[in-house]
């Protein structure tokens, strides 16, 4: 039994059987990995693919999707009907992304999220 500092194989110095610096770094890494995995699993519950969106827009898109279950009032989210296809509604998520919904009569069904460029290239519903 010694209380002298020793150098671990990793190069860190410390006391005891294992390097506590590496142990805590590893614990943080495992936790981050688990959080990332849990976050990725939440996408399985979305009616449309939101994986390509930044996290804050994922949250925003989900809020809108949840509201659309109960309301057809897309103007609440600054949504607009497309001029060339009145059954398609475009809801801005940010300057760069739009959520495309189809008017199915009794409710609005989210179809996909498009970036601004995609949206301009392949006019949805066109
Ligand atoms: Zn170490």
TrEMBL record:
Coiled coil: none
Domain DUF7682: 4-25
UniProt domain ParE-like toxin: residue ranges: 56-121
Domain of life assignment: Bacteria
Protein's recorded name: Recombination activating protein 1
Organism (species): Funiculus sociatus GB2-A5
């Amino acid at each position: 039994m010694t209380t002298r500092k020793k150098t671990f194989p990793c190069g860190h110095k410390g006391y005891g059987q294992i390097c506590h610096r590496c142990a805590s770094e590893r614990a943080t890494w495992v936790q981050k990995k688990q959080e990332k995995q849990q976050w990725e699993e939440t996408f399985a519950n979305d009616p449309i693919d939101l994986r390509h969106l930044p996290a804050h827009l994922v949250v925003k898109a989900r809020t809108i999707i949840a509201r659309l279950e109960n309301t057809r009032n897309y103007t609440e989210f600054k949504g607009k009907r497309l001029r060339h296809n009145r059954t398609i509604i475009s809801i801005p998520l940010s300057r760069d992304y739009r959520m495309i919904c189809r008017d199915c009569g009794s409710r609005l069904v989210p179809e996909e999220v498009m970036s601004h460029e995609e949206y301009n290239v392949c006019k949805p519903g066109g």
